[in-house]
Structure formats: structure tokens, C-alpha cells
Amino acid sequence: MIVALIIACEVAFWILLLGGLSLRYLARMPRTGAAVLLCEPLLEVVLLVVTVIDLRNGAAPDWKHGLAAVYIGFTVAMGHRVITYMDVRFAHRYADGPPPVRPPKYGMARAVHEWKTAARWILACGIAAGLLQGAVWFVGESGDVTSLRSWQFKMGVVAVINVVIAGSYTLFPKRGVEEGATAVPTASPEAGAGAQAGSGERWGSR
């Protein structure tokens, strides 16, 4: 049941997102669209309540309960970013809004972007790990929490990977062509022809 509910929450998330943005920009009903978008946090609340009830009714904690905690953590941390991403593109396409701003590609600006991305992932992992710890305390010492601990370890690994990626952009910033390469002068066709003519004159003078 937990897995089916997670899938249903994901499907409902996209239905609410696309429906809310369509109401805002296509139907020209911004307040109604905003109200629909505000319903999305209720999905995480429903999933959390159902998961707690399932554990309270004596279900053995397993990977499904851990997956529910991870899903909630990532949806809470990343959901607003996804909504903003889609909102900007809907506004640009259907409401003459400004074009989406692409992330920087080079230098420290790229490193800052990577650290912001890593911060969102770390926040998601932290929320998930906190929910998993809450489940461990809820189950108590009498239950088998091996699966929940395994999910916590995975969240730690994901957080470390993101720190390593962001750190690599800081220590070894990506350089653009204009920064990383020294321009090598190349002779134009006219210059090449002139050089050949000059060479011929020199040989001819002998």
C-alpha cells in the first residue's frame, strides 16, 4: 500500500502542478491556479500520516517505509524548485514572460551554482534522515530497524557525493574557451598569399 501511495502522490504532484500552471497562464485564473499549487504539500502530509498509521498498526518497518521518508524529504526540499522551474517556462511560453536564465557554465559562478544545488540535495537528505530517525524511535528497540538505518546510510552517501561534486568545481573551476586557451594567431588567406609572393620575390632577386 505504501508504494502505491508514493506512486499516487507523484502522479498527483504533476497533475496539480500542470493543472495549476494551466489555470494561471492558459485560463488566466491566477488565484485559482495558486490555490491548486498550494494543495501540493498536502500530498506529503497524507503520505506521512499513512506511513505512521501503518507502523502504529504493527507493520514491520522495511524498505517501503524508508522509501516513503526519502520521498517526503526530497519532495519538501526539491518541490519548490521544480514548481519555480516549470512556472518560469510556462510564463515565457504562454504569457510573454522573460526567457529562463541558464545556469553559469564556467568559473566561480558555476561553483556557487553547484553549491546551491548541493545544499538542496543535502537538505533533502537531512529531512529524510530525520524522518527515518523518527521512525526508528517510533518503532523502539523491540523492532527491526535495519532497513531504516540502511536508508539513513544511503542518504549520507548521497550528501557526501554532492559535497564532493560541488567541492571539485571550487578547487578545479571549469574554464571557458576564452579563459582556458590562449589564442593562436592564424594567417589569413590574404596574408598567406602575400607571404608566398614575398618568398617568390626573394628567390627571384637571386
Short summary:
The chain has 206 residues and is mainly alpha-helical. Helices cover 78% and strands 0% of the residues. This is Putative membrane protein.
SSE blueprint and pairings:
Layout: H1 2-25, H2 30-37, H3 41-56, H4 63-94, H5 107-139, H6 146-171, H7 177-180, H8 189-205
Helix pairs in contact: 1-2, 1-3, 1-4, 3-4, 4-5, 4-6, 5-6
Keywords: Membrane, Transmembrane, Transmembrane helix
Region (Disordered): 182-206
Biased composition (Low complexity): 191-200
Please name the defining characteristics of this protein.
Putative membrane protein, 206 residues, membrane, 78% helix, transmembrane helix, transmembrane, mainly alpha, 8 helices
Q: Care to describe what's here?
A:
Residues 191-200 have a biased composition (Low complexity). Residues 182-206 are annotated as: Disordered. The chain crosses the membrane at residues 6-27, 34-53, 65-83, 118-139, 151-172. 78% of the residues lie in helices and 0% in strands. It has helices spanning 2-25, 30-37, 41-56, 63-94, 107-139, 146-171, 177-180, 189-205. It contains eight helices and no strands. It is an all-alpha fold. The protein has one domain (2-175). The chain is flat.
In DSSP terms, counting alpha (H) and pi (I) runs of 4 or more, how many helices?
Answer: 8
The total tally of domains equals: 1
Average pLDDT number: 87
Number of strands: 0
Derived structural class:
mainly alpha
Estimated share of beta-strand residues: under 5%
Low-confidence stretches: 180-206
SSE arrangement, N to C? HHHHHHHH
- Biggest sheet: strands, sense, closure? none
Radius of gyration: 28 Å
Q: Please state the overall shape, judged from the principal axes of the Cα atoms.
A: flat
Helix content: over 70%
User: Termini separation (Å)?
Assistant: 96 Å
Keywords: Membrane, Transmembrane, Transmembrane helix
Region (Disordered): 182-206
Biased composition (Low complexity): 191-200
Transmembrane segments: 6-27, 34-53, 65-83, 118-139, 151-172
